[in-house]
């Protein structure tokens, strides 16, 4: 009942809250927290309920791309550094900072390695990308997986953990995938 009500509220509010956004030809390079398009060329856009169904079946690799600043190198001794915990979809891999429009070679390698880990190196393995609602990071990451890395079964979940939590689906704290040294 709660999920049906949540879906009805979202469907009612979406036309009021969101203007149509065209899918760009290239990666989004700035203003990453802004309305996103309804489409992803070469991929499948999923709703919260569709993402939940895919999650329950357990056949799709879920990839969280929420950015997080790394611990700065060379901090003075005694400096306290606390990374913000990420409450995400259970079983997801967290690959922060891979959703920017332009990424460094080391980030590209990190992203490729993370995807290879969750797909066992199979570009036909289904993979779902998400972040937060109205966040271009997941759109960029999904586009990169399709166009640059050759993944063929890509899902994009634009409502991300905001939509997931709104439906009261389970979350858990997940660690970020370690970055190469």
TrEMBL record:
- What name does UniProt use for this protein? PQQ-dependent catabolism-associated CXXCW motif protein
| Key words of the record | Signal
Q: Which organism is it from?
A: Thalassococcus profundi
What is the superkingdom listed in this entry's lineage?
A: Bacteria
Which PROSITE patterns does this entry report, sorted A to Z? Answer: RHODANESE_3
Determine if S-adenosyl-L-methionine is one of this entry's keywords. Answer: no
Taking every annotated instance into account, which residue ranges of this chain make up the domain Rhodanese? 83-173
Signal peptide boundaries: 1-18
Its taxonomic placement starts with:
Bacteria, Pseudomonadati, Pseudomonadota, Alphaproteobacteria, Rhodobacterales
State the InterPro entries in the record: PQQ_CXXCW, Rhodanese-like_dom, Rhodanese-like_dom_sf
